[in-house]
Amino acid sequence: MKPPSDYDQRAATLEPFVIAAKSPGLSSACELLLVHGDDLAWGAREFGLFVVDADVEDMDDTIEVDRARGELGFIELLRRALPFLRSAIADVAKRAGSAATEAERQAAIGAFAAQQISSKKSSEFDRLIPDLMRLLPSLSGWLASASASAALDLRNRQLEASGLDEEDYGEMVAALERLSGAALPIYRVSVPAAGGSAELSIAGATGFGATMLADDSEYVEVLRLAPWLAVLKSGEEVALPLFLAHYINSHYPGAAAAFPGARWGGKSGPEIDVAIPHLAVGLEVKLLHAPASIGQQQIDAQVPALVRQLKQYRDLGCVRAFVITNLPEAPARYLASRLPSEGDLTGLSTTVISERLDGVLPLLDALVAELQPKLDEELGLPKEPPQPVG
Prior knowledge:
By secondary structure, the protein is of the alpha+beta class. Helices cover 49% and strands 14% of the residues. The longest helix is centred in the first third of the chain and has 39 residues, at 59-97. The chain is elongated, with a radius of gyration of 28 Å. The relative contact order is 0.14.
């Protein structure tokens, strides 16, 4: 199998995860690479990708009380502001009603509302300040409770979609927090151990440097993936192939042996997610959105495209292919059983790897060991027959 003519040069950006993979306290961070980017989004992907750290037991009662108190506070503030708003709203509505087009109507509303507000004397606004200050604790409690509820909803959705249990998910997020530059805190909502209202803390550009979390407090904290990582987890999902290749190359002391995004024949040529030409091995990454809820029918729909891809691997010289997927073990076995019946893969040994990180790392270590004869050849040492995996 010939080396590729072109490949993705960004594998070194996954260095923090390659280091983490061999560190017992940080290896759980690598589980993120097996979570589909859509399962990390909070709304549109353009807003970023997020994970949620949480230590909550009895927080729900506090959130509900703060939300109710805040809603009453908003009603009270609106009641105090009505005299000020009533005349302005009436004038704005009259001005907008004479507009000929929708664009003119919106422009008239904006311009006239700004003029009405700017024409008010500061004393008219000052009359609202005492009420605002009195209601501020309940309003801030409402904001904190709403922020906590939204974060917990996101966390529950990620748990359900990814198939990770609460312990594994929590370990993944905790490891990401310790992995330098991988995830940055956005905000935290906490409730003191002694009870009281929820408190909202907004992180600075470098995180929570001065705003500390009191001992035994319950909390929920939202973290955004660093931009460099979010880019690799979006679109074509290249983070995992880059990691696989960099892991192999980092643990193999010879010349680069694994090539992510390998192509033959230029940018428009056929591609292998990770090619190991010396072993005639191709690694195909198959990350699926919400894998925990995928059934046989959805898997059947994926099989034809996967078989076409594997035939392409064979045509490029692969004699072994490993399909690395985030499917749970049972659906992964079903996928493996469907591949031979969908098309002729004669000449290509195919293995489906699941069990997340516990399945991926042993495979990579075995491939590194299998490359040892290549290093011996480079050093001019006697050859020993390799023991292939798969």
